[in-house]
Structures are given as C-alpha cells and as structure tokens.
Design goal:
The relative contact order is 0.23. It is built from 4 helices and 7 strands, in the order βααββαββββα. The chain is of the alpha+beta class. The chain has a single domain, classed as START domain (Alpha-D-Glucose-1,6-Bisphosphate, Chain A, domain 4, 2-Layer Sandwich), CATH 3.30.530.20. Helices cover 35% and strands 38% of the residues. The protein has a 7-stranded antiparallel β-sheet, with helices on one face.
Length: 168
C-alpha cells in the first residue's frame, strides 16, 4: 500500500471553504462538470445537528488509462466516494469504492485545510492507495496516483477561478 500527499493553495478562508465551497451543491456540480469533465451524482448528503456531515458521490471520470488498466476495469469506470466531515477536527475522511475490482483496489484518505494568511488556505490531502493484482498492481497504483494528483490540481485551478467569479 502506497501513500502520497498533495498540497494546494486556495484563495478563500477556512470557514468559507467548508461552508461555501466544499459542501456547496452548485460548486460541486460545476467542479465535476466544467473543472474535471466527470459525470457526477450526489447520492446522499446527511447533516447532523452537531455539524457532522456524511456524503456519498458517484463519479465517472474521463481518463486515458493504459492498456493494462483498461483490460482489467473496462472502458467505462466509475467510483463511489463515501466521506465523513468531523466538525471537531475539521477533517474530511473518505473511502473510494471503484466499480471494477472493488476487492482488489483500495483508496482512502483524509484532507484538511490550514490557514495561510487572512484569505488563503492550504488544502492537504493524504491518500492511501493499494492494488492487489499480481503483475499489474504497481502499474495501476502509479496510474491512479497520477490521475488523482492531476485531478486535485485541476480542482485547485477551477476552484480559484470559481471563487473569483463568485466574488464579483
């Protein structure tokens, strides 16, 4: 199982990030459609009185996977992200269940944000990734890690653009 961390800076303060960006339905619709080019569906969103939030989303990313990956997962690939926001720690933990080989591919992580001045923050995402498929596991892990990092970078660019538009 491999682990990797990504960091990105956003032009928003911590409270607005959680309240007006991360859980905002319009933002998410536009992020996945315009920013990432994914098919996106909000499966469930449950808010508790204590500030806890549980959310499930299903997405179908558009990727140009290597032949070895396509052979195993097929041409149409989706995943279900099940996430939990803890208002005390202000951390989002998630588990990703792929549509293909869910017993062989594990993806989970945690992310949080740290203030960077008055109107910026750094989002830190720690991801654990494991593929238990003899002969091609490392190839698939490398592909998933690269795609994940690329998509987080695209999300950063889209989010900062969206924040500028919203501020007008």
């Amino acid at each position: 199982m491999g682990k990797f961390t990504v960091r990105h800076v956003f032009d928003v303060d911590v409270d607005k990030f959680w309240d007006e960006v991360f859980f905002d339905p319009d933002y998410n619709d536009r992020l996945f459609d315009e920013g990432l080019g994914f098919i996106y569906e909000l499966v469930s969103l449950e808010r508790q009185d204590d500030g806890t939030i549980d959310r499930k989303v299903r997405t179908e990313p558009k990727t140009d996977a290597p032949a070895a990956v396509k052979k195993l997962v097929g041409d149409k690939f989706s995943y279900l992200e099940t996430g939990h926001f803890d208002p005390k720690t202000r951390k989002w933990t998630y588990v990703v269940t792929p549509s293909a080989l869910p017993n062989k591919i594990s993806i989970a992580g945690t992310f949080w944000v740290e203030p960077k001045g008055d109107s910026q923050l750094t989002r830190i995402v720690e991801t654990e990734l494991g593929v238990k498929i003899f002969g091609v596991g490392k190839v698939i892990e490398a592909f998933v890690e690269k795609e994940t990092k690329d998509n987080y970078a695209k999300a950063q660019a889209f989010t900062n653009k969206w924040l500028k538009e919203k501020a007008r």
